[in-house]
Amino acid sequence: MSRAQxxxxxxxxxxxxxxxxxxxxxxxxxxNPRPLTVEIxxxxxxxxxxxxxxxxxxxxxxxxxxxxGIGKLIWELERRSLSNVRIIERDAAEVLxxxxxxxxxxxxxxxxxxxxxxxxxxxxxxxxxxxxxxxASRLTAGGYIYMVTDWEPYAAExxxxxxxxxxxxxxxxxxxxxxxxxxxxxFERKGLDKDHRVREIYVVKGAP
Length: 208
Hints:
208 residues
C-alpha cells in the first residue's frame, strides 16, 4: 500500500463494518433505510466512489479483501466527503451467507471479477451456481444483478448461471448493452487495449 492508502485504511474505521457472522442491521449501520447496493470485489474503488457520489439517495456496501483497494476507496470517500458507503473486509460468499438476509439487497454489482483463466482454477470463479442462487435469494423484488467481464468464457458461464437462477429473468435475452452510468475502470481500459471484448450481464428479480 502507498502511505496514503495505509493511513486511510488505518484511520477510516468509520467506513468499515466488522465481520460478525450474524445478520446485520444495515439501516442502523448506515443511519437510514435507503436501498442497499452491494459491490463484490471493488478493486481500487474508484468506480464505487463515482457511482455512490452520483446516487446519494442510495447506500453502497463494498466487499473486498485487497487492503490497498480498501485504503484507496476510503481515501476517495474522504476526498469526496461521501457518507453512503461502507466496507466489509472479508470473502464475499461468507458475508452474503451470514450477514445478509433474504430479500434485503436492492442490487449487486460485480465489475470484472477474477476470471481464473486456467482450467484447474475454474471452480474458483465466483459467479456460478450455487452462488448465483444465493445472490438471487438476497435480492428484493425488482432488484438486479449487474456483472461485467472482459473474459469471454467466463461471460458465457456467468450468463447461463445468472439467467437460469430461480426467480431471476434476463430482460435482454442475452448480454446487455453498456450502461452509461457505469464508469470505465483502469482495469477495463487495460483489457480493451488487449482487444478484449467487454460483456455485460443484467438480470432482474421477479416475473418478466
